[in-house]
Every structure is written in structure tokens, then in C-alpha cells.
Amino acid sequence: MAITSTISTATSRRFERVAAVDPDVADLLAAETERQATTIDLIPSENYASAAVIEAIASVNSAKYSEGYAGKRYYQGNRYIDGIEELAISRTKELFGAEHVNVQALAGVPANHAVYMALCQPGDSTMGIEVPSGGHLSHGSPVTFIARYYRPTLYRVDEVTEVVDYDAFASLARECRPKLIWVGSSSYPRFFDYKRLAEIALDVGSRLVADIAHVAGLVAGGVHPSPMPHADVVTTTTHKTLRGPRGALIMCREEFADAIDRAVFPGLQGGPFQHHIAGIAVALHEAQSEGFKAYARQVVSNAQALAEALIEQGFDLVSGGTDIHLMVVKLTSLERELTSKLFADALEASGLVVNRNPIPYDPNPPFRPSGIRFGTPAATTCGMKEDEMRKIAQWTRAVFDGVEDSSLHQRIKAEVAELRS
């Protein structure tokens, strides 16, 4: 295939076994490996797992069926599988202070679906934050199945400050009286006041569910407030800032344990992915280290340095900055009109990988939104610090000014690859 000419010999050798069976897939795997090694990943929902986590994912556990839970399986041969799953559960409890943990949900959205199934009946009212205001589709977006089976009400951040107005949030909750209140985000760059949200939920007879998929690693690292003392249920993915494999955790009060477990299995899925649960157990062990705490601190420090540098370069950010690992640049505030797709494509051509993102009260439709989302988890994993963040902001401005200058993009791409090396 033509792509092989751009791949180093060392990268190609990593997939020799695959190449012997399927050279087309081997070429594509090698090309993706090379792409990741020569670009800066600024997508806040992406990260790099350790070699130990990857080795666990690639283990013989990938072929094992284990429907049910530890000690109560429907298949034989799960003695060691049980041990791994129990490790993942105990480490989650220790790391986050959870009363009960389910590690079997296949991803973040299935985990959230399990919470709906466990705690709601069809037709119940729910409440969450809309996607343009930073929320997630699974918190009640009308394009998901949730709007078909439940009655979601979506909250918008304040139009001026672009942050949550808790008095307005409480007023809306009193109007819709939701069974569940979801709090969490994909692009909201500020802390949530979990204590205040729990008070709002209690006032209207709701259950509070905190989706910390983006910030779980920051919570584990002690640089982000934990929702655990306040929320009835907490869900999270296990990659992103936690640096594990793709997967999910559901943490809840003991009173909801049976309902959550039944919703996951047999309610929504069959056999869990035990190779991923092994990888999750390893990642949770890594997250208990002092090195991981230092990593979490650097993620936030890098994000704040990048946000400050982007503002210095003339960019306007949603809410004016960030408390966490991500930020969103508003293209509507810039001195020239530019689509998010054109800008994101130009940044990728320059070796800077970002994603298009809606902004609060976005005048444009979802497929061509008015924002660009930046994050620092993956770059921090690569060892980058504040100086590199300032360089990224300078490159971003140069690409903006020369968005259609392919020679500029190639020059910056070479500089990015040199930095990554």
C-alpha cells in the first residue's frame, strides 16, 4: 500500500505478526502508530495508555466469556477472571471512595444507559445540561433514544458568563421535577458545585448522577473536587484523563447496587470484555501512584498555561478560561470569519489534532459548530509542560493567520514532529 513509504522500519516491525497474516491491516496499524507519534493530540477525550495497560488488553482474556458477576458466573473457567474483576472493583473503591462499583459497562454511554434503566421508568422526567453548553448527548439530547423513552429537560449556561447559574438551575429543576439530575460535561471548562447540585436534587426529590468521564483522572489525582460525597451515582469512562483502556465504571450508594448491576447484566448486555477490565485494573493501580498525582497536576497546569497563551494570541475562550483539562475557542469572536472545519483541517495538516465543538448559544448547526476544543491530557502524557503549551498557542495562531497556506502547514508539521521526537 502507498502508506508504507511514510512508516519507519521500527514501527513496521511492531506489527510483523499481523503483516504475516493481513498486510493491509498491518500497514494501517503502523500508519496510525506513526501518525500518533509525529503529531500532538489536543483532543481532551483522548490519551495514551501505558505499555502495561496495552499488554493486559491484548491478553488471552479477550476470548473468555464471563456472564454474571464474580462468584456467580453462568460459565465455567472464571476463577482467575473473578480475581481480576475483583481487583478492578476494590481499586476503584479505594481510589474514589465508592460504596459499590460495577466495572462491566462497555463504555461511558452504555454505563449512563444502565443508570436510566436502574433508576427510571419510561416517561419519567430527567434533567441535564445541553451539548452546546458543555453537556453530553447521553444526558438527554433529543437525538438519542433517551428522548424517546423519557422526558428530558435541558439546561443552558448563562448567556453572558457562559457558566452554570445555580439559582436558574434550581428554578428549572423545580419546574420539571426530574427523577434524575445529570451533571457532567464534554466541553464545560469549569468545576461543578456538587454540594449545591445535591441540595437542588434533594429539594425536588431527584437523584443526582455525576458523569465524570472527562475529569476522573483529575479527581483520582486530587486536583478536581470529587462528587462522591454528594452524588447518588457516579459514572466515568476509563480512558481520557484516567489513562486506561476504553471502558467504564459505575459507582453508587449501596442502596442502588442491585438495581445498577441488574441493569448492566442482564438488562443491557451479555458477557463483559474481560481483557479491558484487566487493563482497567492496571490503570487504576497506576492511578494510585505519586507519579500519577504529579501527572494530574501537570495536566491542569498545562491547560491553564495553554488557555492563557491562546488568549494572548487573540483567541476568545468559552467562559474566559478553564479550571480543568480542556478549553473551547470561540470562532464567532475572531476578527475574520472562519469555519471550524477549515480551521481544524488546517491544524491537523500542521500536526495539531483538535476537534470541532459547539459553543453556548451556537448560531451554527452541530456538524459545523462555532468552536474548537483543546485539551492537555495526551500532550502531558508525552512529557510536555508549560513552555510547549505556549509554543502550541503560537502555532495555532500562525495556522489561523495562514489557514490556506499549505507550505506553512508543512513547516509547522515538521516542527511538531521534531518536538514529538
Shape summary: globular
Termini separation: 25 Å
- Report the β-strand fraction as a percent range: 5-15%
* Count, helices: 17
Question: What's the count of strands?
Answer: 14
Task: Describe this structure as you would to a colleague.
By secondary structure, this protein is of the alpha/beta class. It is 45% helix and 13% strand. The strands form 4 sheets. Strands 4-10-9-8-7-5-6 form a 7-stranded mixed beta sheet, sandwiched between helices. The protein has a 3-stranded antiparallel beta sheet with strand order 11-14-13. A two-stranded parallel sheet has the order 1-12. Helix 10 links the parallel strand 8 and strand 9. Helix 4 runs antiparallel to helix 12 (274-287), helix 5 runs parallel beside helix 12 (274-287) and helix 13 (290-312) packs parallel to helix 16 (386-401). The chain is globular and about 60 Å long. The model has no long low-confidence stretch (mean pLDDT 96).
